[in-house]
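Minutes, project check-in
Item: structure for the 316-residue chain
Input as provided by the requester:
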Amino acid sequence: MAATDSEDVPIDPQYVYMTSTTYNEVTFVSDMRTGADASSDTGVLDMPLTVYGVTSDPADLTISLLLHQAAPRSDGTLEVLLVTQIENHSDKVYRQSSFVQPNRYGVIPIQLPAGAVPIGLDTQRYVWDQASSTIIDTMPIIPNTDHIIHVSYIMPFDAGGTTLTFNVDYPMTNQPELMLVPGQFRVESSQFKSQGTLQFSGGMFDDYVGDPLNAGDLLIFTLYPSDPVAQPPSPQPILGIVLTVVGVVTIALAAVLIIQQRRSSLSSSESLVAQIAQLDLLYRDGQIAEDVYETRRAKLKEQLAAVIRKEKRGKP
């Protein structure tokens, strides 16, 4: 992208800076810089911004993470957390060619099992198509970056067993994994093999892994409740983890934190940058009110500034 100059922008070592632009209806953002990164000679703060073309060809997409976590709820239903990571190996941004809502392109569809209903869905990023039981991610996939999708849903759960499925639309480069609250389930699956009860950063889990699957395969497993007398369901949210963000329990984010600790796949600053970029795009397209946009953006920028300062202090 051609170089441009921005005048009359004060450079303060305590401030965090970024720049963004929109090309082919995709918003691109630069890496974060603080004022301390400015040249000591000229005071100029360079902020390189990479802009990509757009493709709708999924041939270069792979799945590098596919994790299911489940816990029975006290109301007799089953709560499931799905986390998947899609990688784009092309030199272009990936999105589908059609809108799923006005001015919103589809990117990655996630079809839920029969009878499942999403909970806590981030409607700024995801679209729920009830007719097809599909959650559609609308965040474009930047080349060679980790693209994490996390959704929670509930579904019926009884003694006759509950079957969960996942359509593998892209080749997998890693093992699928299933993590369950210990002692709560009996698993029936020809694809998953038990690894025993293991200690993770989020606690103890009955862990299962399978062989990587090919595009077009179906991941399928059935969960049966264990002895309800010996192992009563917990009234706590899934995994027993509660993360409160602005007064809202965000279970999906808690799971992502677990994955980040185990796989070191996505930095906090990158995640916040992506949220800011998506918020800018929604506002530009008139999908959110100005006061809501300004309030949310200010909060995200405050979080981002704190994260950047923390990351810099942690550098050797």
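Outcome recorded: The chain is about 15% helix and 35% strand.
No further action items on this chain.
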